[in-house]
Specification:
- Pfam families: SBP_bac_1.
- This is Sugar ABC transporter substrate-binding protein.
- Belongs to the bacterial solute-binding protein 1 family.
- It comes from Streptomyces pseudovenezuelae.
- With about 425 residues, the protein is an alpha/beta fold.
- The protein folds into two domains: about 200 residues, D-Maltodextrin-Binding Protein, domain 2 (3-Layer(aba) Sandwich); about 200 residues, Periplasmic binding protein-like II (D-Maltodextrin-Binding Protein, domain 2).
- It has 19 helices and twelve strands.
- The strands form three sheets. It has a six-stranded mixed β-sheet, sandwiched between helices. It has a four-stranded mixed β-sheet with strand order 6-7-5-8. It has a two-stranded parallel sheet with strand order 9-12.
- Helix 2 links the parallel strand 1 and strand 2.
- The radius of gyration is 21 Å and the shape is globular.
Length: about 425
C-alpha cells in the first residue's frame, strides 16, 4: 500500500510486492537499504533497530504507537528505519545479506521460508515458547520455516474481496453477485449506467496477481493454486488457459488506463462513486478517510465459478516480523518480539488501522468495525487460506516473470497461448535453480 516519495518507484501495498529477485534488477539511482544509523546504535542494550516497510501514514502511525508502548513497558527504544514500501520489497535480498537491522517487517508463508532457508533470518523458537498460546494453529503453521522452526511473529491479516459502496448498489438496485455469470451481468449493467464497473490500477504490477489468484482458485481449486505456485503444475495446463479465458471475458469491464494508475488512484474512483466495484485487499479502507464514506464501504467474496470449489478459498495475506541473521541486541529483540506477539500489541495497532484484523485468537474483537467483523468472519470461515501469488511462490519468479507477463496479457489477451508457453519455459529454469 504504499507510499509516496515521487523520486522513487511508484508505491505499493502492505503486503505483496515486487519480489526479492528484483533487488539485482533495480538499476542505479536508488540507494540500497541499509540499517538504521550507525551499526553501533544496535549494540546498545537499550536499543533495538527495526527495518520498516510501513511508509504509508496509517500503518506508520500504528506501528509507532506499538513501539512507544513497548518502550514504556521495557525501557528499550525501537530505532525505526522506514523505507518506501515498494523499494523495501525490491531490495530486501541485498539488505538482508548486508548489515540489516535487528528486526524487520515481513510476510508469513513462502516468502518468510525463502529467507529462512537461505540463513538470512534467525529462528525464534524461544519467543514462541512464550507467545504460542496466543495464536491458532493456522498462524503457527504460517510462521514456521521448512525446517520446522519458527521465524515469524504475525501481527495482522486481511482478506482480498470485491469492495463496493452500499449506497451505489442501493441507488441502482444492484444485487451482490454470487456466481461468475452474475458478476459479468452486473459489470455490463454498471457500464450501461455510466459507471466504471471494476476499478483497476496496475502501475506497480502486483494488483493483477490478485485477480489471477481469485479466478484460478475459484475455477481450479486451492490444491491446484498451491501446485501452480510451487512450480509443480504447468502454466501450459488447460486449467490455466481456462482461467485466463475467464479473465479475458471480464477485462472489458476493467478501468481503462490501468498501466499508469496506482492502487490508491484506483481506490479514489470507488471513493468518488465513479466505480462500482474494486477487487483488492481490505487495506483499501485506508483510502476512505471520511467516516461517512467508510461507513458506506462493504465487500463480498469473489463469486463462484466452479461449483466443486464454491467460495471456499480466501486470500488472506498475513504480515508481521522477522529477525535478521545476526541481531546485535539479541536480548532486546527477544523482548520486543514477545511483546509484539501479545493481544495488547495487536489492539494498539488495530485501534489505529481498522482495515485489518488481528492474527491472534486472543485479541479483543469487541471494538471491531462492521467491516472488520465481516473480514474476520470471512477468514475464519474459509476452508483454505492463501497468501497471495508473490507470497505463495518464489519471489524471483513472481517479480521477473509473472508481473511483466500479466501486464502483457492485460494489454493483449489474445496472445495468451504464446505467453503461457513463455512463462512455463522461464518457470522451469528458475525453479531448477537453488
Amino acid at each position: 500500500m504504499r507510499d509516496l516519495s515521487s523520486s522513487l518507484p511508484s508505491p505499493s501495498r502492505r503486503g505483496v510486492l515486487k519480489g526479492v529477485g528484483g533487488a539485482a534488477l533495480l538499476g542505479a539511482g536508488i540507494p540500497l537499504l541499509s540499517a538504521c544509523g550507525s551499526s553501533g546504535s544496535s549494540s546498545d542494550p537499550k536499543t533495538v533497530s527495526l527495518g520498516s516497510n510501513a511508509s504509508d501514514a496509517v500503518p506508520k502511525k500504528a506501528f509507532a504507537e506499538i513501539y512507544a508502548a513497548f518502550q514504556k513497558q521495557s525501557g528499550i527504544t525501537v530505532d525505526v528505519n522506514t523505507k518506501d514500501h515498494n523499494t523495501f520489497q525490491e531490495q530486501i535480498n541485498s539488505y538482508l545479506q548486508g548489515t540489516p537491522d535487528d528486526v524487520f517487517n515481513w510476510f508469513a508463508g513462502y516468502r518468510m521460508q525463502f529467507f529462512a532457508a537461505k540463513n538470512l533470518a534467525s529462528p525464534i523458537d524461544d519467543v514462541w515458547d512464550k507467545i504460542g498460546g496466543n495464536f491458532p494453529d493456522a498462524m503457527k503453521k504460517l510462521s514456521k520455516g521448512a525446517d520446522g522452526k519458527y521465524y515469524f511473529v504475525p501481527l495482522y491479516t486481511y482478506p482480498w474481496a470485491i469492495f463496493y459502496r452500499k449506497s451505489v448498489f442501493q441507488q441502482h438496485g444492484y444485487e451482490v453477485p454470487t456466481t461468475w455469470d452474475q458478476l459479468v451481468a452486473l459489470s455490463k449493467q454498471m457500464k450501461k449506467d455510466g459507471l466504471v464497473p471494476i476499478a483497476f490500477g496496475d502501475k506497480d504490477a502486483w494488483p493483477a496477481m490478485g485477480t489471477f489468484d481469485q479466478i484460478n482458485f475459484r475455477l481450479n481449486g486451492y490444491d491446484f493454486h498451491v501446485e501452480l505456485m510451487a512450480g509443480k503444475a504447468a502454466w501450459t495446463d488447460a486449467k490455466v488457459k481456462a482461467a485466463f479465458d475467464h479473465w479475458a471475458e471480464l477485462l472489458p469491464y476493467h478501468q481503462d488506463g490501468f498501466m499508469g494508475r496506482t492502487w490508491q488512484d484506483a481506490a479514489q474512483t470507488l471513493v468518488s462513486k465513479k466505480a462500482g466495484m474494486y477487487l483488492l485487499g481490505s487495506f483499501v479502507a485506508q483510502q476512505f478517510t471520511n467516516k461517512a464514506d467508510l461507513d458506506d464501504l462493504d465487500f463480498f467474496a469473489f463469486p463462484e465459478i466452479n461449483p466443486a470449489y464454491g467460495q471456499d478459498t480466501v486470500e488472506a495475506p498475513t504480515d508481521g516480523f522477522m529477525v535478521s541473521k545476526a541481531p546485535k541486541n539479541k536480548a532486546g529483540v527477544t523482548k520486543l518480539l514477545e511483546y509484539l506477539g501479545t493481544p495488547a500489541a495487536e489492539q494498539i495497532y488495530l485501534k489505529a488501522d481498522s482495515s485489518v484484523v488481528a492474527a491472534s485468537s486472543k485479541a479483543d474483537t469487541s471494538s471491531y468495525t462492521p467491516l472488520q467483523k465481516k473480514a474476520y468472519e470471512m477468514i475464519s470461515g474459509a476452508k483454505s487460506l492463501t497468501q497471495f501469488m508473490d507470497r505463495d511462490s518464489r519471489p524471483d519468479f513472481t517479480s521477473t516473470v509473472m508481473q511483466p507477463a500479466l501486464q502483457k496479457f492485460l494489454q493483449n489477451p489474445k496472445g495468451v497461448d504464446s505467453l503461457l508457453a513463455s512463462i512455463e519455459r522461464q518457470k522451469k529454469t528458475i525453479f531448477a535453480s537453488s
